[in-house]
Amino acid sequence: MIEIGKHSIRFILFLLAQVYVFNHLELGLGIQFMIYPMFIFFLPNTLNIFLLMSISFVLGLSIDSLSNTYGLHASAAILIAYGRPYLMKLFEPRDGYPPTTDLSIYTMGYVWYATVFGIFLAAHNFWFFLIEQFKWSEFWFMILKIILSVPLSLGMSILIQLLFFKKPSTR
Amino acid sequence: MRNLIAFFRRFRIFLYFALLQGIALSTYFTYLSFPRSQYLTTASAVSGQLLTYRNDVTKHFQLPYNNRKLQYENIQLRQRLSESFIKVQGALFKIDDTLQHQQYEYIPAVVINSTVNKRNNYFTLSSGKSSGIYRGMGVFSNKGIVGIIHNVSDHYAVVKSVLTEDINIDVMVEKNGIFGLLKWNGKNPKIGTISSISNDLTLKKWSKIVTRGGSGIFPRGLPVGKIKSLKTVEGKPLWDVEIYYSEDYRKIQNVYVIKNLMLKEQKELEKKIPSDEEIE
């Protein structure tokens, strides 16, 4: 029950942060900060895949309706939600995942987090920019956007964890 | 039958994924070309209200810039007031003008949400149908054109800005009337491009670009920008023209929506142009 409440509050916070703050950070060159993939990444590991995809779909559509992208964020969000179990299986630590905690930098370490969330984010950005541009003539510009956007979003997500996430006391 | 059920059971995750993906992508591509309703856009009541809250805070950040702009425009208008003129003819002077009729009316609006870093950028205005705004109307500020109304609800409107790929507003060089279509390449919100100008025409750097007023959306002569650079397109006899926009779209707040009172007349007349097949 506490888990549901926690994730519902996070849903709203990530949604508002994305549309109110990060959509308006303009660094030029088409760089966009994507913060909401963090929410999908932090959903419990044991969650049913159908529920996972549905939640991502709703989150994506909410962001779309507040930033005039008409379903683009929803599409990218479902893609990463669908791919998440495969990714998690691939990078599963030897002893399995810790049962109820978030897979944050504190519980999993910086290297694991940067690798897995980096791949997660790269898949999201690739799909997002591919559909947004929808033109092969701008392919290299799209690659440039992804190369610049992914590390910045990754750095921002680590910063958010350092600032707002509690360090588990048992470690 | 059993095989079919087995198939659905086996691929149910992928099928659900494909279903959601289909919904998302089909809404994206239909809304991009023609929005059927205002749900899922910032023109909807809830989104519009949420963005208004945000704008209540952020509008103050650009206040000096926008005040200066409005003041400048006020000076220009004040110079045209009757108080600013000397009467030369005494009492004999006619006010009712039969030679000139009003063609354009302007509706003021405030931009409550805008982005500049996406491939296609849409702005949200805080006025809609109740103020007389409809799809297809032009939007401009006193420094330059902004875009075309894409979608309206009762109290909000979404503008397809000049920072979208295929905005296709017809623009011309102010001095000699050479015209082309305005586009945006998605890289820099300060720079736009003009396509379909044949490269045997001579263009000068820094010459002023204004609207042509061909389609009746914008009046002739609204400022757009200045030519920044000229290159020839490889393999085609065309110029690749880059322009600096005269408006800074990152700071824009106060805009005007254009209502063309004679648009219907123009469209009806243009409908009578015979197409190629009818001539044969």
* CA-based gyration radius of chain B: 24 Å
How confident overall, as mean pLDDT of chain A?
Answer: 86
What's the tally of helices of chain B? Answer: 6
Q: What is the string of helix and strand elements of chain A?
A: HHHHHHH
Largest sheet properties of chain A: none
Q: Give the CATH H-level superfamily of the domain at 169-248 in chain B.
A: Rod shape-determining protein MreC, domain 2
Shape of chain A: globular
CATH class of the domain at 169-248 in chain B: Mainly Beta
Report the portion of residues of chain A in β strands.
under 5%
In sequence order, what are the helices and strands of chain B, one letter per element? HHHHEEEEEEEEEEEEHH
Radius of gyration of chain A: 16 Å
CATH topology of the domain at 169-248 in chain B: Thrombin, subunit H
Poorly predicted tracts of residues of chain A: none
The most extensive interface between chains reads:
A-B, 38 and 41 residues
Question: What does this protein look like?
Answer:
The complex is a heterodimer of chains A (171) and B (280). Chain A has helices spanning 2-21, 37-42, 49-67, 72-90, 105-108, 110-133, 139-164. In chain A, 39% of the residues are buried. Chain A is an all-alpha fold and 171 residues long. In chain A, helix 1 packs parallel to helix 3 (49-67), helix 3 (49-67) packs antiparallel against helix 4 and helix 4 packs antiparallel against helix 6. Chain A starts with a helix and ends in a 7-residue tail after the last helix. Chain A has seven helices and no strands. The radius of gyration of chain A is 16 Å and the shape is globular. Chain B has a domain at 169-248: Rod shape-determining protein MreC, domain 2 (Thrombin, subunit H, Beta Barrel). Chain B is built from six helices and twelve strands. Helix content of chain B is 26%, strand content 28%. With 280 residues, chain B is an alpha+beta fold. Chain B starts with a helix and ends with a helix. In chain B, the strands form two sheets. Chain B has a six-stranded antiparallel beta barrel. The radius of gyration of chain B is 24 Å and the shape is globular. The interface between A and B is large, with 38 and 41 residues.
